Amino acid sequence: MASEKVLTFSDDNFDTDVLKATVPVLVDFWATWCAPCKAIAPVIDAIADEYDGKVKVGKVNVDDNPGTPGKYGVRGIPTVILFKDGKVVDQVVGAVPKAQLEALIKKAL
Fold first, then answer.
1. Does the entry annotate any disulfide bonds, and if so which pairs (predicted)?
2. CA distance readout (Å), 77 to 20, 32, 80
3. For residues 100, 97, 99 and 87, what is the CA-based torsion angle, rounded to 10 degrees?
4. Any idea which residues carry the catalytic annotation?
5. Which position among 10, 22, 28, 59 has the lowest Cβ density within 10 Å, counted as fewest Cβ atoms?
6. Residue 102 in 3-state DSSP?
7. Residuewise pLDDT in 10s, the chain (109 residues)
8. How far apart are CA 96 and CA 78, in angstroms?
9. Which pTM was predicted?
10. In the CATH scheme, what is the homologous superfamily, with its name and number, of domain 6-106?
């Protein structure tokens, strides 16, 4: 079951919802046909629930929103990028363990 705390980001709202956010933002770049993206989805949901209020968590569908992934050099999916104060803090590519994403988040908190 998907967490209601996972937001949907798009080319249209990315600047406002991610780059101008007052808290760090974890963004999962994904696609519906991507098996590793489906594998990491429960991890993204769990992080959204656990870090609610400290970190915004959301997803960008790369098929529906090609501009944003191109801007950040997303070549493979899933790519998870952590933003803070409008800048990239770090990123990981692939279906990584939850501990690796939590280590990413700790860099921004």
1. 34-37
2. 24, 11, 8
3. 30
4. 34, 37
5. 22
6. helix
7. 467 999 999 999 999 999 999 999 999 999 999 999 999 999 999 999 999 999 999 999 999 999 999 999 999 999 999 999 999 999 999 999 999 999 999 989 9
8. 9
9. 0.96
10. Glutaredoxin (3.40.30.10)
